[in-house]
Structure to design on (478 residues):
């Protein structure tokens, strides 16, 4: 009997054109099947139009009941992953026009392949997991009750404990009392400058840096000094020279991978910058929003110099940008000033958002989502190297973007507009330049906005073809 069942199973497995693995899954089987289906569509294993195995065949192949498969296919249809047609079975749905959109900021034309935004890879798992976190919170009375109450400026201690424990598992050990919540990473950048730097004082960063920091410094009337950089980011010798000429209150850094250049700081570089900061009584603001895995992360500045350093965390690149949830780790001596600024702005970020974000972030589902995303990003970065390797794009394996220095005689503005004509949106170096620093002839390409890998590959191939061409430039009449 057992051997007959095994034979049926083996036969069915051999005939299934798609065979998911349901091992090591904690959710109900039908749900695990739908999650696997969603993941296989996202990574291109299943293409639009591909036919799923007949229900009976898949049930035999997986050793589950037909009812489980029926329920899974129905749920997949409800989530818009597949469509069932009488006579032609269940097929993966055409996704080009209805891929989940978790951003509304893109300047890309509707039919353009958007490689311009640094956003998490769109995936239906995000909607499902947020719904799950909301449902589970609403069943948990105390969380709803506390969310109704005013909180201290630093944020609810229970949620800070949850976040601190989670960060510790990621190689970022922190004390609960060193943490305060913000409304995302951008808010944390702004808060630090507003609370700790006086108008007219100077802050510094790499000459090419995150545009949100440029905007925050400008908005607050601060002097923003561009520090010359090399392939590890800010150069300590250049910073030292600048410090001898003027007082710089704070250095902003992204040591894991700089947005936009993708460069990573090694341990010696970090120590050298701490030395300069100590000598000149300068704060170090580390922006960790472009979060990387514990295995690839170097030692954080706040671990090297806890009394001088602040660290910014956000769920925007891990879970969803729309959550607007972030946190700031600061030395104890600076917490009162930061709290005073928070109180003046908004009293405290909403506890309901902290509750949802912490519930989601610390769930096993979020763990698999993040693991999937990091794997997928690494594969996508490999594709960038395969397609554009001749031009040596710089990137981090966990990085959402790659930095492409254009071959002579391409100019970035021409390349961006020619790419748009070819249906691909990328950004030139201009928005990342501090002050009137000259922009290099380079573009940033983000690998994460396309929901599927095939679209990304099409975009990359179009860029590679374009790079083979001579730029069309009409000389003005003189
Ligand atoms: C380096 C860096 N810091 C901060 C932010 C803003 O993060 P959030 O969306 O959490 O405000 C971004 C967003 O792209 C970023 O790249």
């Amino acid at each position: 009997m057992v051997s007959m069942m095994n034979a049926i199973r083996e036969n069915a497995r051999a005939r299934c054109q798609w065979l998911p693995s349901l091992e090591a899954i904690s959710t109900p089987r039908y749900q695990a099947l739908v999650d696997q289906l969603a993941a296989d569509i996202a990574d291109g294993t299943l293409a639009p139009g591909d036919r799923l195995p007949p229900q009976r065949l898949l049930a035999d192949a997986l050793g589950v009941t037909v009812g489980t498969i029926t329920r899974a296919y129905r749920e997949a249809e409800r989530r818009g992953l597949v469509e069932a047609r009488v006579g032609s079975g269940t097929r993966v749905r055409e996704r080009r026009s209805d891929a989940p959109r978790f951003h509304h900021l893109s300047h890309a034309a509707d039919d353009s392949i958007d490689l311009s935004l640094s956003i998490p890879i769109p995936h239906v798992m995000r909607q499902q997991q947020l719904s799950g976190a909301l449902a589970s919170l609403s069943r948990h009375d105390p969380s709803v009750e506390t969310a109704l109450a005013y909180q201290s400026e630093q944020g609810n201690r229970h949620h800070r404990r949850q976040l601190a424990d989670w960060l510790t598992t990621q190689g970022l050990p922190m004390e609960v009392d060193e943490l305060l919540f913000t409304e995302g990473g951008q808010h944390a950048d702004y808060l630090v400058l507003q609370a700790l730097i006086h108008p007219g004082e100077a802050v510094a960063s790499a000459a090419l840096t995150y545009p949100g920091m440029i905007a925050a410094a400008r908005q607050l009337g601060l002097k923003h000094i561009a520090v010359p950089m090399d392939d590890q980011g800010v150069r300590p010798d250049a910073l030292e020279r600048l410090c001898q000429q003027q007082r710089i209150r704070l250095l902003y850094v992204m040591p894991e991978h700089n947005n936009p250049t993708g460069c990573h700081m090694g341990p010696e570089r970090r120590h050298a910058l701490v030395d300069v900061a100590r000598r000149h009584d300068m704060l170090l603001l580390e922006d960790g929003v472009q979060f990387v895995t514990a295995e690839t992360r170097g030692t954080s500045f706040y671990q090297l110099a806890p009394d001088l350093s602040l660290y910014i965390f956000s769920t925007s690149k891990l879970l969803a940008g729309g959550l607007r949830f972030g946190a700031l780790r600061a030395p104890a001596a600076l917490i009162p000033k930061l709290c005073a600024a928070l109180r003046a702005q908004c009293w405290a970020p909403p506890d309901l958002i902290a509750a949802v974000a912490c519930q989601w972030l610390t769930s096993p589902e979020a763990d698999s989502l993040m693991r999937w995303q990091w794997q997928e990003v690494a594969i996508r970065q490999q594709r960038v190297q395969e397609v554009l390797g001749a031009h040596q794009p710089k990137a981090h394996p966990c990085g959402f973007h790659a930095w492409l220095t254009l071959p002579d005689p391409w100019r970035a503005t021409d390349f961006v507009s020619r790419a748009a004509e070819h249906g691909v949106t990328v950004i030139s170096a201009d928005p990342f330049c501090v002050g009137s620093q000259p922009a290099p002839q380079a573009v940033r390409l983000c690998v994460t906005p396309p929901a599927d890998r095939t679209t990304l590959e099409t975009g990359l191939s179009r860029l590679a073809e374009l790079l083979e061409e001579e730029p069309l430039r009409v000389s003005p009449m003189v």
In short: Residues 118, 184-186, 210, 212, 254, 259, 287, 289-290, 314, 316, 321, 326 surround pyridoxal-5'-phosphate (CB under 6 Å).
